[in-house]
Amino acid sequence: MEPIAQYVFVKPWPFWAGGLIIGLLVPLLYYFYNTPLGVSTGYGNLVKMIFPSRHLKWIRSKFADTWSWRVYFIAGIILGGFISSVFAGQAGFTLEMGQFTDAVGWPAIFIALYFFGGGVFLGLGARIAGGCTSGHSIHGIANLHLSSILATVMFLIGGIVAANLVRIVLLGGVG
Amino acid sequence: MGKKIGFLGFGTLFGFALSRVGASDFNLIFGMFTGQDLKLVWVILTAVVVGFIGMRVLRLRAKQTISGQPLKISYKKLGHWSLMGGALFGIGWGLAGACPGTVLAQLGEGKIFALFTFTGMIYGTYIYARLKENNTEL
Q1: CB-CB under 8 Å, B85 with A124
Q2: Angle, helices B2-21/A69-87, rounded to nearest 10 degrees
Q3: DSSP per residue over A102-113, as a string?
Q4: How far apart are CA A37 and CA A23, in angstroms?
Q5: 98-127 in B: which are within 8 Å (CB) of A?
Q6: Is this prediction's pTM over 0.80?
Q7: CA-CA-CA-CA torsion for A29, B122, B94, B22, nearest 10 degrees?
Q8: With a cut of 0.90, is the ipTM above it?
């Protein structure tokens, strides 16, 4: 492969390359679609596909439209991760989750429950906070929105407390 | 239809960038919170600066969207509930080593446990829909 292609498809990107592409999505999505960058709202669309509880007002609202453009955005991100792993020669299913699966000797079902629990916090928290990393921490701060700056401070506090507790209690302390 | 295809394309670019820079790597997200590896802090800071400059250019030079509409910048409301939600989200971010975007890139990379983070997120969003039924402030 050409050297330039090596840098794009095989070697891990330096921080600035990722920041550049992700940051450019904010003005690009406004320019083309007058739409703020954001991912977590799209999970509302997925909820309606799986729990079609029409008696719930929120499920009937526009936030839970099935097959809206948000679902296509979600599908695209999955596709992007897949393309990345194919070109890097790492495609295929794996039970690896970094230092977590290295350190805990749990049966897979318990690891699955752990990640499911983390996901519940993410899904519930994102909706109550009104956004996630992309909507608040990138789109919101880039537009200097106070609510997004404060939400990001809370994200970081929660993350620092949770990750350090997990590291000390489950991963065998600071090593 | 054009918007859906467009978002599929932009989503693919987003997922590719997240994966290539390592934002879908459990160790980098977890390590950002434990101080083991701060690469993703620099990714987010770069993205914020680029997004800020890009929005300035868009507002001052283009002034409107490609189809000539006035720009409609989305502002999220602030309240004590949104701060509580932020803390809950942060806990999930630290536990799962993923956020709503990066878990999708993890799925694409074939990480089996990301499927459980992903279904947990859908279930968490469903819990929100249930809670909102009786609490309009949420």
Answers
A1: yes
A2: 40
A3: HH----HHHHHH
A4: 10
A5: 98-114, 116-127
A6: yes
A7: -50
A8: yes
